[in-house]
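User: Here's a chain of 61 residues. Predict its fold as tokens.
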Amino acid sequence: MNKIFSYFSEVLIELKKVSWPKRNEVIQLLSLVLVISAIVAIFIGIVDFGLTKALENLVAR
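Assistant: Prediction complete.
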């Protein structure tokens, strides 16, 4: 039990040393991740749609 308490005490000490980003920076980076994710999702959707239509045309012949 003492080892568990010691472990979590050390974890808290290390967490206090972390350089946490400012709220504004977190919002900016989150926005960037969401925009890039949306762009990639749209791109993959377009490619998927195009390949599906191409395969349908090949199979229909």
